[in-house]
Amino acid sequence: MRDNFIKNQMQFVEKDNIAIKEKGNIELIDLNSIVKFESDKNYTNICLNGGRMIISSRTLNLFEKLLLDKKQFMRVNRSEIINLNHTIFDNSELQIAGKKHSIRISRRRGLAVAKRIVNFSKMNQ
């Protein structure tokens, strides 16, 4: 079932979209509008810019596998995948643009996150 989900979604991800089922309807969401994915047990909260949140019955691990080739998405801790296009790195702190709270970065992923942010920043200059 997981492999089917990833296989079916890849056609959308290649076009920078993702298909999410919510309340019986399937909605195509532009990947650039996604701020972060946040784990909530066996569900994933998909936070969009503008403050909207969609709850998916898929796990964070599935979204991580699905977005593996998308350089703007990175898993920073056990419960979050962030879109680097919506983050600000200032004074060694990672924040979502327009939000006041910091993003926790796990110790294990700290160095990889720092390198990825530096490389991502260079690519987008």
UniProtKB/TrEMBL annotation:
Organism superkingdom: Bacteria
A Pfam cross-reference name: LytTR
Positions of the HTH LytTR-type domain: 18-86
GO molecular function terms listed in the Swiss-Prot or TrEMBL record: DNA binding
Signal peptide: none
SMART domains reported in the protein's UniProt record: LytTR
Name the record gives this protein: LytTR family transcriptional regulator
The organism's taxonomic lineage, starting at the top: Bacteria, Pseudomonadati, Bacteroidota, Cytophagia, Cytophagales
